[in-house]
Amino acid sequence: MPPTPFSPLRRSLTAAALASAAPIAPAAGTLVLHTFGDSILDCARYNERGVHPGALLVRNDDALFPEFAGRDLSARGPARLEHRAQDGATVASLPAQARGLRRVDRAAAIVTVGGNDLLRGLASDAGPGLKAFEAALEAFVRALPIRPVLLGTVYDPTFGDDARNFLGVDARIARANHRRVGDAIGAIAARHGRLVDLHAHFLTGDPSWFTRTIEPSLVGASEVRRAFLAPVLAAT
Q1: Alpha-carbon span 154 to 226, nearest angstrom
Q2: Does 18 reside within a domain?
Q3: Which of 231, 229, 234, 232 is nearest to 67 (CA)?
Q4: Eight-state DSSP code of residue 203
Q5: In which domain, by residue range, is 186 found?
Q6: Average pLDDT over residues 91-98
Q7: 8 A C-beta contact, residue 219 and residue 208
Q8: Over the chain, what is the mean pLDDT?
Q9: Sign of the CA dihedral running 52, 141, 99, 236
Q10: H or E element, residue 117
């Protein structure tokens, strides 16, 4: 989930439930979009329509978002979602999300992680934690049997306004570490896939894109989709 100043209240990852979910073999020629990470992608519980960004990428809800009618993966052929992202996840949770994953001929992966790591200590970290975060994410992405992989940066629900700081960490320190997390994600994306700058996109938004301070609202879920859409279409 998010960057700089935010609330420490998060749900814990249920690794056992993730591990027990058996992957479904795709029909021949079907493109499988995989999601990994946190509530930026696993945000259906935070909106009244139960919408995930990954689901919108696979098949748009034309009644809700007519702007995106015909602009989804299904418009180009058979496609389905393999949703493994989990609200509350940190970088340490990612290997469990990929457990039992099988390589498929036509696939793509989108990943959002780092917000909960910032919430749980990286926002005030002096350096070692940030290095460990980068190493863990690098190892996960390198071992992931899905390509292409697109990594999203961590957005900022404060819109760069220090007056909205609710983390309890000096905003100057938190913002510097937020930038370092973004730099780490960018470096890994450059080596193994493609970067999607959610942080930059969400700075163009407004508070209606969020609910419960840091979670994507219904509009926010669509805006996450908007940020990923062109890169996913180009990569697949």
Answers
A1: 15
A2: no
A3: 229
A4: T
A5: 27-235
A6: 98
A7: yes
A8: 90
A9: positive
A10: helix 115-119
Distance CA 38, CA 41 (A): 6
Cβ atoms of 142 and 193 within 8 Å: the answer is no
First CA to last CA distance, the chain: 25
- Reduce the DSSP state of residue 149 to 3 states and report it: strand
**7 belongs to a structural domain:** no
> CA 21 to CA 15: how far, in whole Å?
10
Cβ contact 166:213 at 8 Å: yes
pLDDT digits (tens, 9 = 90+) for 38-55: 999 999 999 999 999 999
CB 184 within 8 A of CB 133: yes
**pLDDT tens track for 155-182:** 999 999 999 988 999 999 999 999 999 9
Q: Is residue 109 part of a domain?
A: yes
Work out how many domains the chain is built from and give that number: 1
* Residue 17 within a domain: no
What are the tokens at 149? 């992989």
Span 47-89, pLDDT tens digits = 999 999 999 999 999 999 999 999 999 999 999 999 999 999 9
Domain holding 164: CATH number? 3.40.50.1110
Asked if residues 198 and 34 have their Cβ atoms less than 8 Å apart, the reply is no
Return the pLDDT at 28. 60
Higher local confidence (pLDDT), 39 or 23: 39
For residue 3, whether the previous peptide bond is cis, meaning omega lies within 30 degrees of 0, is no
